[in-house]
Amino acid sequence: MIHFKNIRFYYPKGKTILDDISLDFVPGNIYGVFGKNGEGKSTLMKIVAGLLFPKSGKYHVMGEAMSRNTVKYLQHMFIVPEDFELPGIKISSYEHINSPFYPEFSREQFYELLKEFKLSPDEKISTLSFGQKKKVLIAFGVATNTKLLLMDEPTNGLDIPSKSQFRKIMASVVDQGKCVVISTHQIRDLHSLINHIVILDQSKVAFDQPLSTISECLWFGKTRRDSNESIIYSEASFGGKTILSRQDKDETEVDLELLFNAVLNEPVRISNAIKNTHHDSAV
Amino acid sequence: MDFDNSKPIYLQIVDFFYENILSKRWPEEERIPSVREIAVMVEVNPNTAIRAFNHLQELGVIYNKRGIGYFVSENGYNTVLSIKKTEFKEEILPDIFKKMGLLEIKFEEVKDAFNQYLNNKDNEEK
Amino acid sequence: MTQQFNIRRIGNFIYRDIVLLRNTIITTLSVVGALLLFFFLYDLRGDHIISEEEFASNFMKFYVVLGILFTFSIFREAHHKKSNLFYFSLPISSYERVTAIWLTTSALYTLLFSVFGFLIGQVAIVLGSMFSETNFHLLPIFSESYWQGVTFYFFIQPTFLLGAILFTKNRIIKTLLFVVLLVFGLFIFNGILFSIFNIGYDIFSEDQIVSNAFSLAREDFSGIGIFLFVIIMVPVMLLAAYFKIIEKEV
Q1: What are the backbone dihedrals phi and psi of residue C157, each rounded to the nearest 5 degrees, phi first?
Q2: What's the sign of the alpha-carbon dihedral C77, C81, C87, C88?
Q3: Which ranges carry the ABC transporter domain (chain A) (predicted)?
Q4: CA distance to partner chain C, nearest, from residue A244 (Å)
């Protein structure tokens, strides 16, 4: 429903940050965007949020071409940045001044979420900790009911119980009308939520697959050394975690960290393994 | 819910259902939580929860009443029991036998240990 | 494009700006209110009235400077590294934004600050009537100087509005410098025009004529120059601010 085609971005005189990025964000999914530091995750998020202009490329929202700063586009998306400062006013005032801009905003939902996060609408935002401010913003972002909810490192600054609350909230908000895109390093915090993996490497989309395809094609686990199966990727560390082509083996849980390392080190082999299996099953 | 790294999450959710059905927390012919409720409860993507529901529906453990929700099947308890028994015989026992062989444990020893366990349990109950 | 201009969004944005600056506004108004009250009370001595001209003179001590400061502070969120993201991702078009900001910092500000000045003056009169021989009278505010001041503010304010969005650091100083350069540029431009048309008179040879040229140039600036300023400068500055906002990236 939200579609980016051939997005290119670079800073004047700088190196290319994003090179020919095409991505589809389909509602009902939680996308995880991964990449090493400086591989353009935050830049991509800002471009999607309309805060940076791509040097070339197209935006489509529900089949309609848009420019990044049309009101209609901005009404469809909300971004929770990694680092931010909120005004020092009461939480309820914050809602009051910002919610009228979002046509689908639900006040009921916002105050319900605040309650879940144990925040009172009368609290002044300036007296809150960073984690609490983040909760205010997450609650607000969810309550805007935008089609696209972008989150840059959402679990940074949240304590352990709040991370669990965050996962519960995300599990409850994703439905047929909403798409969540999370950019993060905290794979462990979020791996049960994410069902589509995007990996950026060397300014390009190195990997873009739904989790269901990955678990259909790849097998994650430890193998015996004498196994004669061809190994797609293996970590030499103790225990030797390995990725194999799944073939007839039982389905395993996708090890996102292992997959991430594999994509960075053996991009061709991974994509071939997926292409072959996927092709076979399609025929 | 903490997830085991090797088993797909949807199967771990299925196990969570089995546990509730075997312990009779979810009796037969009673409504169970919705997909969304389960997703929130165990903090997973609703798509993963749907997979677990579909899997259980295929096995005949639960069924869907249109517009109302999911229910434990009439003989859901027995179905789960036989599934878990098969799993025990086919997956857990071979592992145990292999370990017994490795550690040279005789079957008699296991039998004694099992009897002792039963005795202890009886005593505790008294 | 009908989507892009919506009166209600402009209203919401004005309200949002005012709420965000509420504390600053309250603090400033209490300080300025106290000073104004002091000046007004001072004016009551002798004749026991505050005249139109006295009001205008006190009012203008603050009106232009405060208005310019207000114009700069309204972009605080837009320039702050950790909050500009929210500012620019807010669903409001650049037309609406510039319109809202201009309305807030010119029309709305003038209206409210005039009412504020009037109220403080009136309080001074009431206080005076309680503690001295002052007779209660309604404070007259609409003098010629008042209108001149307001007109002046409306002419120069868009330039500062542009400066407030254009520069990110030391915005006030840079804008002032910009204005000085602008005035100087116009001055030179007039001078050059004058010297071109009067080249035959060899104006640079004699001090007398040079100073004549400059004074003529200055005169020219005060007449046609101000007219140009009004007709061209205001829309140009607002348009420039609009384009600046459109291309602003975070």
Answers
A1: -55, -45
A2: positive
A3: 2-227
A4: 43
* Chain C stretch 23-42, residues whose beta carbon is closer than 8 A to a beta carbon of chain A: 23
Give the number of residues written for chain B.
126
Kindly provide the residue ranges of all beta strands, DSSP E only, lying in A26-61, ordered along the sequence.
Answer: 30-35, 56-61
The secondary structure element, H or E, covering residue A213 is helix A211-217
Instruction: List domains and CATH numbers for chain B.
Output: 9-76 (1.10.10.10), 91-125 (no CATH)
Number of H helices, E strands in chain C: 12, 0
Give pLDDT < 70 ranges for chain C. Answer: 1-3, 198-230
pLDDT at B86: 93
Tell me the HSE value of C191 on the side-chain side, using a 13 A CA sphere: 15
Chain A positions in Cβ-Cβ contact with residue B6 (cut-off 8 Å): 220-221, 252-253
Per-residue pLDDT of chain B (126 residues; tens, 9 = 90+): 556 567 889 999 999 999 999 999 999 999 999 999 999 999 999 999 999 999 999 999 999 988 899 999 998 999 999 999 999 999 889 989 999 999 999 999 999 999 999 999 888 877
The DSSP output letter for C100 is H
Closest residue in chain A to residue C97, using alpha carbons only: A71
Strands A148-152 and A179-183: parallel
**CB atoms B9 and A192 under 8 Å:** yes
Q: What's the predicted TM-score (pTM) here?
A: 0.84
List of residues 6+ apart from A5 with CB closer than 8 A: A22, A57, A58, A60
Mean of the pLDDT values across residues A19-33? 92
Q: Is beta strand B69-72 parallel, antiparallel or unpaired with respect to B62-65?
A: antiparallel
Strands ordered across the beta sheet of A241-245: A218-222, A241-245, A231-234
Question: Given an 8 Å threshold on Cβ–Cβ distance, is B45 in contact with A167?
Answer: no
Q: Cα–Cα distance between C127 and C123 in angstroms, integer? A: 6
CATH number assigned to the domain covering A2-202: 3.40.50.300
- Summarised one tens digit per residue, pLDDT across range A54-72 is 888 888 877 777 776 688 8
Which residues of chain A does CATH 3.40.50.300 include? 2-202
CB of B45 closer than 8 Å to CB of A195? yes
SS3 content of chain C, % helix, strand, coil (to 5): 80, 0, 20
Tens of pLDDT, residue by residue over B110-121, are 999 999 999 998
pLDDT tens, position by position, A195-220: 999 999 988 899 999 998 998 888 88
Instruction: Report angle CA C124, C125, C130 to the nearest 5 degrees.
Output: 100
Q: What is the pLDDT of residue C2?
A: 44
Q: Would you state the pLDDT for residue C34?
A: 94
Nearest CA among A102, A96, A97 for reference residue A73: A102
Residue-wise DSSP of A116-173: HTT--TTSBGGGS-HHHHHHHHHHHHHHTT-SEEEEESTTTT--HHHHHHHHHHHHHH
Q: Which residues 142-161 of A are in CB contact (within 8 Å) with B? A: none
Which residue in this structure is represented by tokens 């965007």? A33
Q: Residue C177 half-sphere exposure, CB side, CA atoms within 13 Å?
A: 6
